Amino acid sequence: MSNLYIDPKYKSILPLRETEKAIKEIKDYFEQALAWNLSLQRVSAPLFVRKGSGINDDLNGIERKVTFQIRDDNDADAEVVFSLAKWKRMVLADYDFKADEGLYTDMNAIRPDEESMDNLHSLYVDQWDWERVITPEQRNLDFLKTIVRKIYNAVRETENHLRSLYPQITPVLPKDIQFVHTEELLEMYPDLTPRQREDKISEEHGAVFIIGIGGELADGTIHDGRAPDYDDWTTPTVNGRKGLNGDIFLWYPILKRGFEISSMGIRVDRDAMLKQLKIRNALNRTEFAWHKRLLNGELPLSIGGGIGQSRLCMFLLRKIHVGEVHSSVWPKDMLDKCRQAGIKLL
């Protein structure tokens, strides 16, 4: 265990059973608000996919996947998904979604190599994965910002709905979300780490979308890792900056830090994917079935992302630990410290 934060003054606003009721209220309401704001249809999603299909995401490329053999298929290997970024785009094509239509689904994942189980990080990941067909004219920064604002509006609507049910939970989100590029953050805070920059800008604005995550910055570093074959982090936008993707951060006073609730972006087209695969020395992926479909023009242009379900519940219910809103396995010393502090993990 590392980086567990415990505030001796912390006390959960809602008891356990009321928390469980509130979790369902948040998920039901936000799901509908997201679908309405983005014109999305719910679809069913896989928990696991075939190994070697190219459909699963690789995150930073070093994390182990949970794998098993399918006995009735000659012990073929399957692996639990990390996310569904590429699977969703394939479904948009196979289900014949049109421009400005899209899908959302429940994504559940297991990430055994999570580096630091702390207040925010768990082996278990649950999120709303969504994807929407776009036109060539919509592959630009202004359109990305429009979609970000729609998602943020759905979050604020859910916060206001929760206040009507639990008046003791006071809304804290600002009316508008702000936008900043990772290059700007580097210029503003050159002596801080990327994580510290996120905290600084989140505290300043309350809600911010950080643009351009994955590409190399002016000092030769990257703000954070991104796979080369779903988000577009190399396309030029304005003032020499690059990237059509980013993360939504909210300032969370309970943890005194920026709180990421969504990673999203306009997806790679053929040229962007080849460029990014080359940068990451991963051109061998062009032999995967999914990548061949993209290169052959069989997949639509799209925008998409993931929104953390437990993250959103944790934020809106003012919980100090993600384990208060979802059940997982935690290190014994973490369980002991939380128990001593009166923090009840599910």
Distance between the termini: 18 Å
CATH architecture designation:
2-Layer Sandwich
The average pLDDT is 93
Secondary-structure element pattern, one letter each: HEEEEHEEHEHHEEEHHEHH
Shape: globular
Structural class: alpha+beta
Largest sheet: 8 strands, mixed
Number of strands: 11
Strand proportion: 15-25%
Low-confidence stretches: none
What is the number of domains?
A: 1
Compute the CA-based radius of gyration: 20 Å
CATH topology: BirA Bifunctional Protein, domain 2
- Contiguous helical run count: 9
In short:
It is built from 9 helices and 11 strands.
How would you sum up this structure, described in words?
The chain is of the alpha+beta class and 346 residues long. The chain has a single domain, classed as BirA Bifunctional Protein, domain 2 (2-Layer Sandwich). 32% of the residues lie in helices and 20% in strands. The protein contains nine helices and eleven strands. The protein has helices at 16-38, 85-94, 141-165, 182-188, 194-205, 270-279, 289-295, 309-316, 332-340, and strands at 40-42, 48-50, 67-70, 76-80, 102-110, 124-133, 178-181, 207-211, 245-252, 257-266, 302-308. An eight-stranded mixed beta sheet has the order 1-5-6-11-10-9-8-7, sandwiched between helices. β9 (245-252) and β10 (257-266) form a beta hairpin. The longest helix has 25 residues, at 141-165. The protein is globular and about 55 Å long. The relative contact order is 0.17.
